[in-house]
Design goal:
With about 325 residues, the chain is of the alpha/beta class. It has one domain (about 50-330): Metallo-beta-lactamase, Chain A, CATH 3.60.15. It contains 10 helices and 18 strands. It has helices at about 5-15, 95-100, 120, 125-140, 155-170, 185, 255-265, 285, 290-295, 305-310; strands at about 40-45, 55-60, 75-80, 85-90, 110, 150, 175, 180, 190, 195, 200-205, 215-220, 240, 245-250, 270, 300, 320, 330. The strands form 3 sheets. It has an 8-stranded mixed beta sheet with strand order 1-18-2-3-4-5-6-9. A hairpin with a 3-residue loop joins strand 13 (about 240) and strand 14 (about 245-250). The radius of gyration is 20 Å and the shape is globular.
Length: about 325
């Protein structure tokens, strides 16, 4: 038996015999009439990103490229619903991409970061500095009065500051003799509530209120190091479930359990994809062996240069490659 055949038997056994009931994990089991993902894509006629809409759940990809892609920008996205918005990841090229979309980092009032690589947090120093030092003249507030929200966990908030942000932000000023700045001087830290019973760490949080509320679950994933076999041995990284309708994988290796528990009942799965097997991302080849009903609602992003010439996602049953904001946005109508 070939390795490919053996792998497919393992996959089929997993999906047929190890199905985890979604309602046991806090994700709605109710069946919805789900439109095909391509029908959810709405062309952008105005060549800019709007941070408010009429109330539908809307996803704008600021970019769809990998960390090292010379084109396509980085895979950061903006979620909009009514009067609420959330940016997921703010990479080192984000400020340029935001500028092209008619925005600045000062417009981003809510941010969730999935992990500590530069294509996901490289723009955070600018975001923090502009909030503290540019906001007073632009928003007419006192220094430190405007603090955008950073949605995270207490453990990762500490790691993010100590290992990535502190060197560029701590010494900007002394608020009193001997007292330098901390992350909470720049942003409002909003920690998620731990949700037990999922078999891996899951935190629940929300942006906005009422009809504009964006409900979130952040879920631990297995991204780095490349020798890690599960989220338990991996450094902090998360995927995001949005309104129980969208699964955003973040950066992760191929992880069947993650997809089964959290993606099965979502309308759409946005999944990272690389063009070779191995390393720290799911590969196109690995994702190809997923069941048809999963692939048909899976849109692939975090793309390396040249992948469009190597593979045809539609020919393998996927919904397609993710499209960036200049082309349009993904709109999920209100139920």
């Amino acid at each position: 038996m070939s390795v490919c055949s053996a792998t497919n038997l393992t996959i089929n056994f997993y999906w047929n015999q190890k199905r985890v009931q979604a309602n046991a994990f806090g994700i709605s089991k109710k069946e919805h009439a789900v439109s095909m993902p391509n029908n959810l894509f709405v062309p952008n006629a105005q060549a800019k990103i709007h941070l408010r809409n009429e109330g539908d759940l809307q996803v704008w990809f600021l970019g769809v490229g990998s960390a090292f892609a010379a084109s396509m920008f980085q895979s950061n996205l903006i979620v909009v619903k009514g009067d609420s918005h959330l940016m997921i990841d703010l990479g080192s090229k984000a400020s340029v991409a935001l500028h092209e979309a008619g925005l600045t980092t000062l417009d981003i009032e809510n941010l969730l970061v999935t992990h500590s690589h530069a294509d996901h947090i490289g723009g955070m120093e600018e975001w923090c500095l502009r909030a503290r030092y540019a906001a007073p003249s632009i928003k007419g507030c006192a220094r430190g009065e405007y603090r955008p929200a950073l949605l995270t966990t207490a453990d990762y908030g500490h790691i993010l500051w100590e290992c990535s942000l502190r060197g560029g932000l701590e010494h900007s000023e002394e608020t009193q003799p001997g007292r330098r700045l901390s992350l909470s001087d720049y942003v409002s830290l909003r920690y998620g509530t731990y949700v037990p019973g999922f078999g891996r760490p899951v935190y629940q949080m929300k942006v906005g209120e009422g009809a504009s509320a964006i409900e979130l679950k952040i879920v631990r994933t297995n991204h780095i190091p490349d020798t890690s076999k599960s989220w338990q041995t991996a450094f902090y990284s998360v995927g995001v479930i949005i309104d129980e309708r969208i699964m955003f994988s973040g950066d992760t290796m191929f992880d069947l359990e993650f997809l089964d528990v959290f993606g099965t009942h979502c309308d759409v799965i946005f999944h990272d994809c690389q063009d070779f097997t191995g390393g720290v991302h799911a590969s196109f080849e690995e994702l190809c062996i997923l069941p048809k009903k999963i692939k048909k609602k899976m849109i692939l992003y975090h793309l390396p240069d040249g992948i469009h010439k190597k593979f045809d996602p539609a020919a393998h049953g996927f919904a397609g490659w993710a499209k960036a904001w200049r082309d349009g946005s993904y709109v999920f109508p209100r139920r």
